[in-house]
Amino acid sequence: MTQGRTRINRALSGEVPPGPLLVKGWVRTVRRTKNLTFVALNDGSCLESLQIVVDTDLPGYAESTNLGTGACVEARGELVASPAAGQPWELHAHELRVLGAADADYPLQKKRHGFEYLRSIAHLRLRSNTFGAVFRVRSALSFAIHRFFQERGFLYVQTPIITANDCEGAGEMFRVSTLDPIDPPRLDGAVDWTRDFFGERTGLTVSGQLQGEAFACAFSDIYTFGPTFRAENSNTSRHAAEFWMIEPEMAFADLAADCRLAADFIQYLCRYALDNCSEDLKFFDNFVEKGLIEKLGSLADAEFQQLTYTDAIKELQASGRTFEFSPVWGSDLQSEHERFLSEQVVKGPLFVTDYPKDIKAFYMRLNDDGKTVAAMDCLVPRVGEIIGGSQREERLDVLAQRMREAGIAPESLGWFLDLRRWGTCPHAGFGLGFERLLMYVTGMTNIRDVIPFPRTPGNARF
Amino acid sequence: MTQGRTRINRALSGEVPPGPLLVKGWVRTVRRTKNLTFVALNDGSCLESLQIVVDTDLPGYAESTNLGTGACVEARGELVASPAAGQPWELHAHELRVLGAADADYPLQKKRHGFEYLRSIAHLRLRSNTFGAVFRVRSALSFAIHRFFQERGFLYVQTPIITANDCEGAGEMFRVSTLDPIDPPRLDGAVDWTRDFFGERTGLTVSGQLQGEAFACAFSDIYTFGPTFRAENSNTSRHAAEFWMIEPEMAFADLAADCRLAADFIQYLCRYALDNCSEDLKFFDNFVEKGLIEKLGSLADAEFQQLTYTDAIKELQASGRTFEFSPVWGSDLQSEHERFLSEQVVKGPLFVTDYPKDIKAFYMRLNDDGKTVAAMDCLVPRVGEIIGGSQREERLDVLAQRMREAGIAPESLGWFLDLRRWGTCPHAGFGLGFERLLMYVTGMTNIRDVIPFPRTPGNARF
């Protein structure tokens, strides 16, 4: 009886029904001996390839001369225990068919390529071991994020991408428009945005938090998971113009509850990766970051410490260590400070809380001291900040005052103030940059290598 | 012993630990008698509100005079079986605290408001029965979409939002830029896009399909689920400038396999909604679309019929019915044709396949007749088209020729052609507009009412 295609991860598990198997995939390597050809076939369902053993007597074998690296092939045959080391099963082919040939120009030959070269062929790097593993982990953790929140009764909300709120957070915004770019309608020497598609000036969102707060003030516990944007011309290994963020928001929560959720969330994701992506994580541990699995395991089991910003500054000042930037109360913590705190001071993950109000956003709740706000950053060894959050200012008058101090006209966010005008409630939330998390979990050190088709200054290819 | 907050859906289930309960939420209605006040409290965890019974002797009751509709309240008390009809449990308050007052200006008073008015307070309509139900279903079905694909071994890929491909599909694109809008750099009288952020002209994606194909040609089975955009100035109840799409893509699949996946997918989502959103669906069935639950149940159990486009045209022509647009071979099917086919001809859901190539996109696989392509539209009663898909053209020369015919320079999508140059494979996929599905499942008739904060011509508020 003919069966449909069996995925290679299932074939390699050996748990398949009796009878001939049909597998399809792309050739990673071909090795020929006098009587046999060995083809390593990969279909992206797992890291490992399945070895196909082809007898040169096989009808249609002649065709297999155009069986180069990169070719797409289907093979039907018997799954048998493999005599070769490192693979439990191999397929003895009865039938072999090349669906799509690949010649010697195929850009992904067997030799190891540098990541920079692979970025230039982002549509093909997916067929390499490293990027296969990266994007399997990305998919698994995306699902884990939804599972985590849905299991806890959080509502998922897709907040808007195009926004007219120009004060959502820090960072430059991309403009979105359909006006004639060379000769836009003008009014008093400026562009007349009232004639644009949305009737006002719009850009790409830098955060879904403000809209998330509206949802939390109706559904209590919500989360967003969507793309966000920064038009910053910074060509670093940690910045992209387009990236995905997760932003939970909880009504009736204070800063302590916010920290608890953040710790549970990170630990859940580490454990999920360890349980569900073990083959790919082993690969990263071997070839990308030694000790990765141990790092994830210890974060999954760690106790998160807590330190106020004021105490953190004292610790840094008392450390006797020379930093590039001197730690001074009132200045933001630098990456070197954050890593020192987690790696040397508490030797593990921690929350730094209660930052000076002047270095934090207007919507963070003012503490009773009048100087600090109920903000938290979650710092982890080797990376520094991985999550930033806060309790939100729920008092109408205080919020309006903070907006004025930040140079934002309260009227421009009237709807946001309405949430405090009627039925206001304490609430808190945080944001996690998904790619930062992926870099942590895979050990990849360039954000361009954990995004399917990264967008950075000068690059919107593919 | 003090417990944390209990969600109202759990309180209403009666399955709570013994002892006093703490609930928090927003007041829907207040009814006062001489000795008692009855407060309907809702926290968004379910449609139903919990009745809080407050004795006027309660300490702090005086405070409850500012307990109007919309106020945010916490109440602690005993959950007891309710003597009132239609609610199994109510809470006898020992303690009541107003967290956030709401005065008589609160825009969402008890009376029924029209949907158009509610759109003008999209940040508050979330606290109404209808929109509570809509966004709970939206969240549940978002998760169901991920579950469906992950259970079947499909990899989730987040395709880019900002794109330089200007031929992704039909429809006008929004421009994304950081150039000076009033005085952009010029070259030969045109805007010099090489000096823009990405070094070329970019816009917002209309589909993740092309990038999804690259992933399918490495991981075999993949899906996207993300925002897409149309800069069309059409103010209809079915069009939005920003909406979410689901686009699966399968290597080694033909059109028949594509149709099977589409039918399984729709039926899974209907069943998931029936099983997991029954309280909200009952509400829609009572107040929004009579017969909704039966409609969903019959789609979940239906056999999907199949009809070629050519046969569909014959059926329409032979029907003797007068249509606004005459059905003619070579023209696209109109909504009236689609509904007639599903409601009158096959009396259920169906796939129309093999459309004339000239009315379909360049990437659809050319059939052997040279005139039609392996496209499919899935039509359902009352709506018409809900899914569109195709087998993709995997032959390099045919695809390049089809691009030239469509006026697209093959070099402009060199990476897309590369997928056919090396290791090409048959593959197929489809797209489902998430909001169209939500309209079908909830019975809501305006797309603005199933999107958290809709973007339409002239409107990017909130």
Automatic annotation (TrEMBL), chains A, B:
Give the GO molecular function terms. asparagine-tRNA ligase activity; ATP binding; nucleic acid binding
Q: Which InterPro entries match?
A: Aa-tRNA-synt_II (IPR004364), aa-tRNA-synth_II (IPR006195), aa-tRNA-synth_II/BPL/LPL (IPR045864), Asn-tRNA-ligase (IPR004522), Asp/Asn-tRNA-synth_IIb (IPR002312), NA-bd_OB-fold (IPR012340), NA-bd_OB_tRNA (IPR004365)
Q: Which reaction does it catalyse?
A: tRNA(Asn) + L-asparagine + ATP = L-asparaginyl-tRNA(Asn) + AMP + diphosphate + H(+)
**UniProt superkingdom:** Bacteria
Q: Which residues form the Aminoacyl-transfer RNA synthetases class-II family profile domain?
A: 135-452
Q: Which GO terms describe its biological process?
A: asparaginyl-tRNA aminoacylation
One Gene Ontology term, aspect cellular component? cytoplasm
As for subcellular location, the record says: Cytoplasm
UniProt lists the family membership as follows: Belongs to the class-II aminoacyl-tRNA synthetase family.
Q: Which NCBIfam families does this entry report, sorted A to Z?
A: asnS, PRK03932.1
Name this protein carries in UniProt: Asparagine--tRNA ligase
* Species: Geoalkalibacter ferrihydriticus DSM 17813
- Organism classification: Bacteria, Pseudomonadati, Thermodesulfobacteriota, Desulfuromonadia, Desulfuromonadales
